[in-house]
Amino acid sequence: MDILMPRLSDTMEEGVVASWHAKVGDEVHAGDVLVEIETDKALMEHESYQDGVLTEILVPEGGSADIGAPIGRMRVAGEPEDGAAAPTGAVEGSAPAQPEAPAEPAAAATPSTPDTATAAAVPSGAPSGTVAPAAGTNGARVRATPLVRRLARESGVDLGTLTGSGPGGRIIRADLDRATPAPAAAPAPVEQPAAVAVPVTEDDEVTPLGSMRRTIARRLADSMRTAPHFYLTRTVDAGPMGQLRAELNAKLVAADRPKISLNDIVLRAVAVALRRHPEMNSSFGEDAIVTHNRVHVGMAVATPAGLVVPVLRDADTRSLTDIAGTARELAGKARDRKLSPAEMTGSTFTVSNLGMFGVDQFTAVINPPEAGILAVGALREEPGVVDGAVAVVKRMTVTLSVDHRVVDGAQGAQFLADLAQLLENPWLAVV
What we know:
Layout: E1 2-4, E2 14-20, E3 27-28, E4 33-38, E5 43-47, E6 52-57, E7 64-66, E8 70-76, H1 128-131, H2 146-155, H3 173-179, H4 211-226, E9 229-237, H5 239-254, H6 262-276, E10 282-284, E11 289-291, E12 297-299, E13 301-303, E14 306-308, E15 311-312, H7 320-336, E16 349-353, E17 372-376, E18 380-386, E19 389-403, H8 409-424, H9 427-430
Parallel strand pairs: 12-16, 16-17
Antiparallel strand pairs: 1-8, 2-4, 2-7, 3-6, 4-5, 6-8, 9-19, 10-11, 12-15, 13-14, 17-19, 18-19
Helix pairs in contact: 6-7, 6-8
């Protein structure tokens, strides 16, 4: 049975085999981690869907393959050791020859071998009708591995509503990916400008593009080319935010609990403002503007491999400490490249903060197909006028990038004004 390169993210086109967790000849069981795949966003574990023995590694560690391409082979339980063709012809992409299997005895050959069908993610519609009859759907017993069940919980998908395309009707990760709420359709790509040839000399160092850097380059170039950006900048009085953070952290430390950051307060304030301004919580689709009823705030995280945007789901309904804990966990996973697809898809608005690097102000490129992104600068001290006298004040500058196809200037300005009020009166965002 071929082990196929799975589709592990919505933007993935190919994957790199980071490491094999089994050697040729090893016995593996359904649910065992078989191989670790590097996608355009993260390192993802890929599990075996069946019991069997790994018989061949087709793509070694460091090698890449397109989605659906064979990367290894295994002999499933009950299959002859010499690799002869399985009697039922259930394996979709098996390479070993099948000398005498007539072309299509499919339906007749299905009797009782539900678990000899193919494993990994199949591009789209697997061998549809031939496998389906064994699988129950709504209300029936759901067959899925622990990993798929966990991903379903995290993404809010009811497995009972899905029809599995795996062995014996088992729900596999590809089925879940197709059911996970996807971002609204991205704007249709226009013609790709030709890449500019870069002269290379002996003194230059050339680093090949990894899949993540390639995807970042493509998506952001598409965003700048297709979404007409306009920018709104506002400087806010950050003194109350700093004071709130200090007071809360003093109490949290006394209670032996983790601290919160200024970015956590900003994330919470943005979520509250988005609830009040649904036009900013929208996306530009092919033929319509999609207004999202739930507020999922993405937070841009810089990693050694590139920019990743994990998602704080339903951020407007969560407490500040909950947001702080989740943001800390997701940022750690992002740096370790351990985010699951559900943890980095589905954002409806993004916050990018470079304040920790001392950047006072910048503009950010919209994460398509969202309507906007907020760029957050550092909290800084500067001279200001307070009650008619010059004093040292704390300021923070934020810049809103807006897709003009979705939001007009006045709407963006109203959102920013409301956000500024929340940031200058952070208790309004916290309680």
